[in-house]
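Ticket opened by: R.M.
Priority: normal
Category: complex prediction / small molecule

The reporter submitted a protein together with aspartic acid and asked that the result be attached to this ticket for the collaborator who will pick it up next week. Submitted input follows.
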Amino acid sequence: MKLHNQILFGLLLGAASGVAVHVFAPGAEWARWTVDNVASPMGQIFLRMLLMTVVPLVFASITLGVAGVGDVRQLGRLGGKTVAYFLLSTALSVVLGLALVNALRPGAGMDPETRAALFESYRSQTEGLAAGDARFGIQTLVNVVPRNPVRAAADGDMLAVIFFALMFGAALTTMPNERAAPMLRFVEALGDVVAKIIDFAMRLAPVGVFGLIFAVTSRFGWELLGQLGLYVAVVIGGLAIHAAVTLSAMVRTLGGLGPLRFWKRVRACLVTAFSTSSSNATLPTTIAVAERELKIAPRVAGFVLPLGATMNMNGTALYEGVTVLFLAQVFGIELAWSQQLVVFILSVVTAIGAAGVPGGSLPLIMMVLASVGVPPESIAIILGVDRLLDMCRTTVNVAGDLTAALYVARSEGGAGA
Ligand code: ASP
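Result attached by the on-call engineer:
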């Protein structure tokens, strides 16, 4: 069996057995034991194997991407196109989410008792979230420049790591060839080593994916889905429409590839994103799929995709817009158009700032809630279903990154897809 089929098999088997456990043995001691001691560790080891490659991978691929472009003016063009595409696809995604949540009003009918019950059961989890730094302003921009790149790497501050790598690559391009060559060869070798480690990690993927999905599905309460059903449906429906319509259209027009072929070729990535809920953990797979399946030149893939994993989150942006308006509706707060515009802008901006890790956008959503006068702790109401929605939005985030790479590669004449 091919690896991507094995992964898919792990996903389906994990989901089926997790759901079976939840239905036939809800809350059983042995089930919890199995999750804590077998399924979760299996999933975590796989996730960590991938995550441990992310810092060297981002450093190597961005440095080589920039050095490969060669000249700073070209780099500006490539970067400009990339960021413009990110902004366009993210904005389209938020508009879709806001349109749906205004039309369907999933929060309007929730009764106050359900609201209070949900709030109580998940409130303890909001404390950890509120502790996160959710302030936004000029300092956010300053923080992109790390004081110490090693510390930034240790903290997982990917925007800062990216900035350092951009500078590193740009500096290399300005040096005479014979001086730059040893460092370039070193970074190339670093990239190769990391790619090998990722290969090792991916052999664990079928088992790891099984563990991750089993841990979620066996714990997941369907009752919650009932209470939050319409909200969940709006988020998932919006994500599905964004992927099937908007992204597909962009793949065809801007990427020059048939959408069906595109979705078929990238499915290994989608499965990895879905089961890890992390754009960062999926990045190694994303780069491999872009180069091998979509035939995108390594210098484009290595530049666009690491940026995308951190900055381009279509799914997260849509989810943020829907969630903020949903919670406003639950509390009977009517947001005027001008306030919805604020939600729109903040959703786009915070999706850029959110970390590509599970639940990375939650602290930022609390900030958006506060800025339009909805109590930020009310996020507790949706925390119970967040893991499921995280899986779905991360899948769309990663798909969006691949469409961006396809577009940039084609416009640079480097795509063979
Ligand atoms: N988990 C998402 C990602 O990694 C971020 C988020 O929306 O929480 O792409």
